[in-house]
Amino acid sequence: MAQPKGTVVLAYSGGLDTSCILVWLKEQGYDVVTYLANIGQKEDFEAARKKALALGAKKVYIEDISKEFVEEFIWPAVQANALYEDRYLLGTALARPCIARKLVDIAQREGAQYVAHGATGKGNDQVRFELTCYALCPNIKVVAPWRLPEFYQRFPGRRELMDYAKSHGIPVPVTPQTPWSMDENLMHISYEAGILENPKNPAPPGLYTKTRDPATSPDSPDVLEIEFERGVPVKVTNAGDGSTRSSALELFMYLNDIAGKHGVGRIDIVENRFVGMKSRGIYETPAGTILYHAHLDIEAFTMDREVRKIKQGLALKFSELVYNGFWHSPECEFLRHCIARSQEGVTGTVRLSVFKGQVYILGRESPRSLYNEELVSMNVQGDYEPADATGFININSLRLKEYHRLQSKVTVKQDE
Length: 416
Known about the structure:
Pathway: Nitrogen metabolism; urea cycle; (N(omega)-L-arginino)succinate from L-aspartate and L-citrulline: step 1/1; Amino-acid biosynthesis; L-arginine biosynthesis; L-arginine from L-ornithine and carbamoyl phosphate: step 2/3. The protein is of the alpha/beta class. It folds into two domains: about 170 residues, HUPs (Rossmann fold, 3-Layer(aba) Sandwich), CATH 3.40.50.620; about 140 residues, Argininosuccinate synthetase, chain A, domain 2. Helix content is about 45%, strand content about 20%. The strands form three sheets. Strands 3-2-1-4-5 form a five-stranded parallel beta sheet, sandwiched between helices. The mean pLDDT is about 95.
């Protein structure tokens, strides 16, 4: 029997990996407290509680963090138009600091010196979990079994884990496992590994779970009006049936339903992990995709051009920091403040259509609009003197004329 090592709080999912880790930690001498985050995934939480207790957990925490996930993590990403490598809406990357923050909170409540997780040694999640833990509790100690040789050499594959589970009374799945891994939260679901590791293989039939195939989705669109205040969605109205949602969680879940029905939010990408390798991921982000397009539109309508250029640069850095696990860094906090400041005038309503896997913007209005219909009209001169454009063009062409004049001289000398 191993020497007692104290209490560890394990980020627990109820699946095979973390169930085996729970028992293994007990073998190493830890008292194990398990923490299961309800962050919007489909899960039998009561069954997971019973399973953890049956496997020897001293205590089980099941914490519903869905509302704070939307308000404190998803909304800042919407304000930023956050997008990693031009395509990924950061569903997992945003969830990890939210989950890990509560993990640290429980460890402090329990007086635990240790926290543990089941993230692999090759992925981003180990970084995201641990940077959050160390930022919020510098003295915490992290147990990461998949980085410990005594663990990963003992369990080099799925078969060894299954054998361990059977010999220790850990329930194993009775239905065949999908040949890929999945991770779900309120914002999205990701699919990777297994047969998906060959980037040439298309997503197999039956993989997608949050969205319908656009080809078989409804033949009539849903038309929505989404209201924003300071860059945050505050109300959605379905123009068809008049239904509305205004609380953050209800609004987001409703958009998930509408987008999922129409097959909106699917991407299949190869991305650059922070640890240095490329990986293939398939993602479904239904509500996030609608909000990305809607916010992009109302922001362009209400924000000064030069401010928006700067803000776009900040959003690029923000997305990189979030992806890499630096949510709780001083630089990311600074960027969130800057981006929030840029959103003070981003207020108004966007009307859009959701149809066959696409989001179509139909119109927008705002009391803070910088659009001047009279000024831009081709039928009214307005407060604009067309003759002034001649000088504007002449000044802007000066640099080009000088550059090409010099290039002509250089070319002549080279030909001599």
